[in-house]
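Q: Protein A?
A:
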Amino acid sequence: MIPDSSLDKPFVIGGRTYTSRLIVGTGKYPTFDIMRRAHEASGAEMVTVALGRVKLDGPEEENILNFIDPKKYVLLPNTAGAYNVEDALRIARLSRAQGMNLIKLEVLAEAKTLLPDPLGTYEAAKRLVEEDFTVLVYTSDDPVLAKRLEDLGVAAVMPAGSPIGSGQGVLNENNIRMIMESLSCPVIVDAGMGTASDLARAMELGVDGILCNTGIAAAGDPVRMARAFRQATEAGRDAWLSGRIPRKLYGSASSPQEGLR
């Protein structure tokens, strides 16, 4: 089936429309300058940062926020490092104290897998929505939980493609498709992207956007990889909207056969 052009709906988060559907991170870069150049090459308009790890009271050259231009990027603070509800709430409230109401919620189960804690994630999301935060919530690829989170009133649901930093791409495409069918809020694949083809494949599922960090930051050339991720995100979106041809067992000639002798 060829998607209707109306499916190319704007990418809107918290009332703001974004041209780029790629969100990038700030961890694991060799230097802050390389991070800054990678952000520019990515074309992203939103950058996420682990606020709990920012050295707000240290030297200027150690404060990552000094390398993110607030005129170019919307800052998306996240609750990385939170392994329970209270820690996630504390970090979110700290971001609000810094004048930021947008929050990417992460409540992880444990440090080995970095998988989200479904119960803690749901409870923290509920409380942050009640406190009028604009919540983008990192979760598993469970379609039922994703719907429950949307029902709370979150701004976006962010199912993991695969474990954080694993570089495995989207492991369960069927679950992502089911999430897309049942949710009306933006769906952003978060985590696990290792190379450009992973992003193109994810976008071809019809998701609204992708968040990547390690795949860019830990690449041999982060700036070049950021550019590749940008192009892959755009190509995957265009491919989904275009409608791919069906897979067939046998070949089909690309030139008309009528009139040949």
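Q: Protein B?
A:
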Amino acid sequence: MRSSATFLLLLTVLLLPATADAAKRQVPREWLGVVVDGPLNDPAYAAAPGEWDQMAGSGVEAVRTAFYWNSIQPTGPETFDFSIKDQLVLAAAKRGLRVLPVVHGTPTWAALNPGDAGSPPRDTADFARLLNALVARYGPNGSLWVEHPEVGKQPIRAWQIWNEPNMTRYWNVAPWAPSYVEFLKVAHRTLNAADPGSKTILAGLPNESWKSLQAIYDAGARGHFDVVALHPYTGKPKNVVRIVKIIRRVMERNKGKALPIWLTELSWPAGVGKAKQEGDFSTTDSGQAKRLKEGLKLLSEGRKQYKLERVYWYTWLSTEGITSSAFDYSGLRRLRGGVLIDTPALTVFRRAARQLQGCAKQVGDARRCRT
């Protein structure tokens, strides 16, 4: 009887942490992520184990990264260079991190206006060919997973179609919405054919995003995307929630009530006093940490009400002073004079991740729940 009782007690103890951890988790897995760009697009950093281990250990569960078309097909439609993105996707997969690619950056040979970095593509067929190749490489039956059986398959199923097309920096034709929606429709059909379980993510919309979203609906986009994406750059965390509320109303007016919202960029760069181009959302290092803490709290509290499925901080790693932009100071980690440093915001991110992911008292997943 005594050994039986001991066995039952041991079994109870072993089961309790997983149950307690599951009960404490406030957000679903992959809700909290970061953007991976800047130095991590450099081959020297793309698969740096220390950086990816830091991400996973800090509570990052998803990453968003640019799949630059002009890097994948720099010379023409027949050849593809996946080398840098292979490194990044494999590094993420080894740590169980879901990758969201944002596909943009027209190569010169495919541009409507060659030589203009903001030119949209000339031909939808070229873009469709690219998407088919990407799914064939990174999707559920992707060749990358066949070539690397040692890595647990983490197929890419969500694809973000372009970045901020309501800004001439990324899509320089006017009016922008009709031509963008033309490519969005082709992308949606192509992805569904290549992977019926895929999701088409709308481009992240900054500035007066509610007006831009209405323009997209007016151009006939309803039914051609699965997720609305926002880049709500504003000075106060409470105003981020206000923007989400306004967007939700626009979606409801346009019969998009069932669709979720993803914040594919959220940030308060610490560029005050350091960058020439600050923006009214720029702050100090301490202000960045404070706003990040408040922002994640408000967004997690409103997650169910507004169907807010993902939040990506911009960005994980940035290089200070490389341009005159405040975004040089947006990283949770930064390269300062060639030396990698942690910011106060990283400490806040880690603590928030622990709380949101159910790691405050019980450690159900030591890799993701450690500080």
